[in-house]
Design goal:
Length: about 850
């Protein structure tokens, strides 16, 4: 509904608006419904209203405007005050039918190799694409120690098929006999100087910081290494920037307002102290700085914004007035009126709490935190300190008071005092923002147990405690703070050492399950609602379910941690705090089905991950750092190429035709220097079952496997009568070749199609060729031809005999003449 006129001076920041729009809806059964809109808030005088018809037939919609006098005055007034807008109305009819009206919802998911950008009409492709925004942002990092690496919409690889590798520094075996350890290897970065950490993936681009000399890639050392952007699928370098500080997260947020609809192009954010430096991810160009960014508890906003919950003192130290504010990164672009502004090249203050440049969505008072207010169940000796655990936008901020129970460690003193959990309201529909929803105080567990926060799950409203000394889990309700279950049975002894950072014991909670995998290399899966152990992975001697190391290292197991988790898969890798060199053999990256614990694929790798992340998943690919050779590896479903030929090209009916061809791997890695030199005819595509051994041969200098199984090729033909039939199937060998004998009988031209349907490792491909079939000779034709040939042979032989006889006669005559001549001469 709209009027032809627009109110003069109407703007977002004032109340100059039309009033009392009326919509009357007459249903097919004659009943009417009237809706009155007191204010038309849109400055363009347009009003939108959603209506869902529930009857078949004609609906009449009538819009009435009752008329209105212009009553405003001000700088914009050009004599409009007192003007009267006459009443008007408009009417339209809508017909509702039972049969649905067809519409394009989305084009199908791809059946061939695809790349970014995803065409805008392929909206259902959201289900196969994703981003990995980095450990510095709210998508991954929670507000307690460690990283929640479960990203619900992340899509990793279902195959160990290598797409490409990239050598970042010297790695692997040094060579020679210059060192006490024969076969010693280059430093891989463990623990404090990681070579590759916090990879960020956005829009099919991988961003990482290169290490610089012996220093790290920015986590604990110099920032001198370049920031590099490469294509996730091919490893092709897109740009590099030496002057950019280390980005810790990417930002992709959705904008829906009256001037803009759509997702903002990806940004890289590099915090330096309290200043955030923003860069365009597509080019690496600097955009602007945000200064005085407040500290607080992070949460992902509904539209991808970086939310931060900040405790503020709006009073003085003597008379504090505590408040909680919801800081919103999008406010750096959009002021109080929600209008986007050009900020390129600017420096913006991120701490503004009021006015047009406010950076907060809301600020709520916290009277319960003021010194003058006593707190119920405030915990140990009334200590006025709180530690946020996790925040969820529009939900709650979970906290604890004082110090969690702990034995004395190098990180803090011992404490066995009671401790209090509580939740702060962040949803105004549930009550006052900032009010405490519940308090719950607990005694320290017996046995001098150290307690830590072990994981959170908003969906099922649960958070976990972890018991360090016994490797046990306890679950609590976010709704009430009540203990739900636990402690569980202790996990394997090696789990005492937790993760590579020693103090971290973080479980991933997803799909209604709790997943724990630490130094023992055993993946434990518990029911989230009951704590019941459902299954384990890694504690078996069977292939595909073992992380046992035997005598390869001192532990007898490969310390294996969950590095990433997406929709259905868990990606784990062997790592530890500081590994000896040469690195023990047999470490792997593993993909595990999150539903049942079955191993999907594995590949030789040692991944350096210490208080950081060195593996990422997105768009169906998995990328990580391999300390065995100091290279980046990326696995995923790659392109393939099928070829086919037929020989002879023309033959007679019933004669054999040999159909042969190849199915080859077209991943970018096959064109790297080493692979191109070793495989001048290309790298063969192989089956999923043979993939790991084959990839380790192609990219890790392992011996050539002797039991490689290729891929199945379906061979079909378009017959001369235009019927399309399958004529056989063949399996390629380790060179990629296949062959099949075909004996066509019908006269005419055959189109031969060789089709590879694809696997987890390769997208499908096909190729065509053709053969011509001439009629075979009949029996009568064969007999007559034979007779004709016999007669011809006889005639030819007789002709030859006559020739010989004549020649002999000539010779005899000549001889006689010579003899007679000689006789006559002698008589003379």
């Amino acid at each position: 509904m709209w009027l032809a006129e627009v109110m003069p001076g109407a703007a977002v920041g004032n109340d100059i608006r039309f009033h009392d729009y009326t919509l009357t809806i007459t249903q097919p059964n004659g009943e009417t419904e009237k809706i009155v809109f007191d204010v038309c808030y849109d400055t363009t005088s347009a009003k939108y209203y959603g209506y869902y018809p529930n009857q078949i037939g004609a609906y009449t919609f009538k819009f009435d405007f009752p008329g209105q006098t212009y009553t405003w005055s001000g700088d914009f007034d050009e004599g409009f005050t007192g003007d009267y807008y006459l009443p008007s109305s408009a009417e339209t009819t809508l017909y509702v039918q039972e049969d649905p009206i067809s519409a394009i919802t989305s084009y199908p998911l791809p059946k061939e190799y695809w790349t970014r950008p995803i065409y805008g009409e392929n909206t259902d492709w959201w289900s196969i694409s994703s981003n990995w925004l980095g450990e510095g942002g709210p998508q991954i990092k929670a507000s307690f120690a460690g990283y929640q690496v479960y990203v619900p919409d992340a899509v990793g690889s279902l195959t160990s098929h290598v797409m490409w590798t990239s050598r970042v520094q010297s790695g692997g075996v040094v060579g020679g006999e210059s060192f006490p350890i024969s076969g010693d290897t280059y430093f891989d970065g463990t623990a404090y100087l990681p070579r590759f950490e916090n990879p960020i993936i956005m829009d099919g681009m991988l961003f990482y910081k290169e290490p610089y000399a012996f220093a790290s890639c920015g986590f604990r050392g110099t920032d001198d290494g370049a920031i590099v952007c490469v294509d996730l699928r091919t490893g092709e370098e897109l740009w590099r920037e030496r002057d950019m500080p280390s980005p810790t997260f990417g930002l992709i947020f959705n904008v829906q307002n009256r001037n803009q609809h759509g997702v903002h192009q990806p940004l890289l954010v590099a915090p330096v102290g309290t200043t955030w430096m923003f860069y365009d991810a597509f080019t690496g160009y600097w955009l602007f700085n945000a200064t005085n960014v407040p500290s607080g508890s992070d949460a992902m906003g509904t539209n991808g914004e970086f939310m931060r919950y900040v405790f503020l003192n709006q009073g003085t130290e003597e008379n504090p007035e505590y408040a909680l504010g919801q800081w919103n990164s999008s406010k750096l672009w959009y002021g109080a009126e929600g209008v986007n502004t050009d900020i390129a090249g600017e420096v913006r203050d991120a701490s503004v709490t009021s006015g047009n440049d406010v950076r907060y969505d809301w600020i709520a008072p916290l009277p319960w935190l003021d010194q003058a207010v006593s707190l119920p169940d405030w915990g140990a000796a009334g200590v006025r300190s709180l530690t946020p655990i996790v925040a969820y936008e529009g939900d709650l901020l979970l906290c604890y008071n004082g110090t969690l129970p702990a034995s004395r460690t190098r990180f803090g003193p011992a404490s066995w005092e009671p401790y209090t959990y509580f939740a702060i309201n962040l949803n105004k529909s549930r009550g006052d923002l900032g009010e405490v929803l519940w308090w719950k105080t607990y005694e320290a567990p017996p046995g001098n147990i150290t307690v830590g926060i072990g994981g959170v799950d908003q969906e099922n409203r649960i958070w976990l405690e972890e018991y360090k000394e016994t490797s046990q889990w306890v679950a609590y309700s976010m709704e009430t703070g009540e203990r739900l279950w636990g402690p569980t049975e202790p996990q394997a002894n090696w789990d005492y050492y937790g993760t590579a950072g020693m103090e971290d014991r973080i479980a991933m909670i997803a799909h209604g399950k709790v997943y724990s995998m630490m130094f023992s290399g055993i993946l434990y899966c518990y029911d989230e609602l009951t704590g019941k152990l459902l299954w384990t992975y890694g504690n078996s001697d069977e292939d595909g379910n073992s992380t046992r190391a035997g005598y390869q290292n001192a532990y007898g197991v490969y310390p294996t941690l969950i590095m990433a988790m997406g929709r259905d898969m868990i990606y784990a890798a062997a790592t530890e705090h500081t590994v000896n060199t040469p690195i023990y053999k047999g470490a792997r990256v593993i993909c595990i089905d999150a539903d049942n614990g079955n191993e999907v694929w594995d590949l030789s790798s040692f991944v350096n991950s210490f208080h950081s992340i060195s593996l990422a998943i997105a768009d169906g690919y998995t990328t990580w750092w391999n300390g065995y050779c100091n290279q980046i590896f990326t696995t995923g479903k790659g392109p393939s190429q099928t070829t086919v030929t037929a020989s002879p090209k023309v033959t007679t009916s019933g004669s054999g035709v040999i159909i042969e061809g190849t199915v080859m791997d077209l991943a970018a890695g096959t064109n790297q220097n080493e692979q191109a030199a070793r495989f001048p005819n290309g790298v063969a595509a192989v089956s999923d079952a043979s993939m790991t051994d084959w990839m380790e041969y192609v990219y890790m200098q392992r011996p050539r496997p002797t039991d490689t199984v290729g891929v199945e090729v379906i061979i079909e033909a378009l017959y001369p009568d235009n019927s399309f039939r399958e004529i056989g199937r063949a399996t390629t060998d380790s060179t990629g070749m296949f062959s099949l004998k075909f004996e066509p009988t019908d006269q005419g031209t055959y189109t031969i199609v060789a089709r590879f349907e694809g696997t987890n490792g390769y997208w499908p491909s096909f190729a065509e060729t053709s053969v011509g079939i001439d009629p075979a000779p009949t029996t009568e034709d064969t007999d007559l031809t034979s007779l004709e040939n016999s007669v011809s042979d006889i005639e030819s032989n007789m002709s030859n005999m006559l020739t010989y006889i004549l020649a002999i006669l000539v010779i005899v005559i000549i001889a006689l003449l010579v003899a007679i001549f000689s006789l006559l001469k002698s008589r003379k």
